[in-house]
Amino acid sequence: MRDLDETDVEILSLLAANARRSFSEIGERVGLSGPAVSDRVTRLEETGVIEGFTVDVDRTKLRGGVPVMVDVELAADAGVGGETALESARERLREADAVEHVFVTVEGDIRLYARIGGNSVREWLAGTFEGLPVDDWTVTLVDEVEWTPSIDGIEFALTCAECSNTVDSEGETTRIDGEVYHFCCSSCLSRFRDRYQRLEEGA
Fold first, then answer.
1. pLDDT confidence of residue 59
2. Which CA distances in Å does 33 have to 10, 11, 26, 29?
3. Count of CB atoms within 10 A of residue 11's CB?
4. CA distance 165 to 22
5. Which fold has domain 1-55?
6. Furthest CA-CA distance within the chain
7. What is the 3-state secondary structure (H, E, C) of the chain?
8. Can you list the residues of the chain whose pLDDT is less than 70?
9. What is the tens place of the pLDDT at every residue in 101-117?
10. Which of 50, 79, 167, 196 is geometrically suited to a Cys-Cys bond with 171, CB 3.0 to 4.6 A?
11. CB–CB of 130/95 below 8 Å?
């Protein structure tokens, strides 16, 4: 498996900034022809580096509620139904449609960004965190949100599907039932394939 070169990284950076760029426009930026860029993008898709092109919706344009940043201080060592307070809160927030981003601090507290509809942010918070051990929360109204995806300076590293170690140039790549998998060594590939076959036989 060949490592990503500087041209691959530059192509990924341009696509991350604007996935609707034409291959010819990208080619002009990286010094390649349009078809050459197309070939590289196809290879990046086949190796699983690019998993698809998505629509990046600017939710601020949809006016889907009041944008807020909320800092949630969880009670230390408290739990709900066998889970830690953090696990319970994160599970609750995953199911909340209004929540767009969740961050966990090193202290084990939560910061979230949400667009809350209705008339009362306080009511939404009370309902969302009902029954959870929350010591305190702080709400900040957000005036403007800007997020710029960047790939520049990031070292890409594929992970082994068997052991999660980094896959380097000595690794192996294979396709099983239409899916591409990467492995750090032939042993991991063999173990993964054997387990996959056993699961299929038992299905």
1. 53
2. 14, 12, 9, 10
3. 25
4. 35
5. Arc Repressor Mutant, subunit A (1.10.10)
6. 59
7. CCCCCHHHHHHHHHHHHCCCCCHHHHHHHHCCCHHHHHHHHHHHHHCCCCCCCCCCCCHHHCCCCEEEEEEEEECCCCEECCEEHHHHHHHHHHCCCCEEEEEECCCCCEEEEEEECCCCHHHHHHHHCCCCCEEEEEEEECCCCCCCCCCCCCCCCEECCCCCCEECCCCEEEEECCEEEEECCHHHHHHHHHHHHHHHHHC
8. 1-3, 53-64, 77-83, 118-119, 145-157, 203
9. 889 888 888 999 988 87
10. 167
11. no
In angstroms, rounded to a whole number, what is the distance separating the alpha carbons of residues 116 and 88?
A: 21
At 1 the pLDDT is 47
Q: How many CB atoms lie within 10 A of CB 48?
A: 14
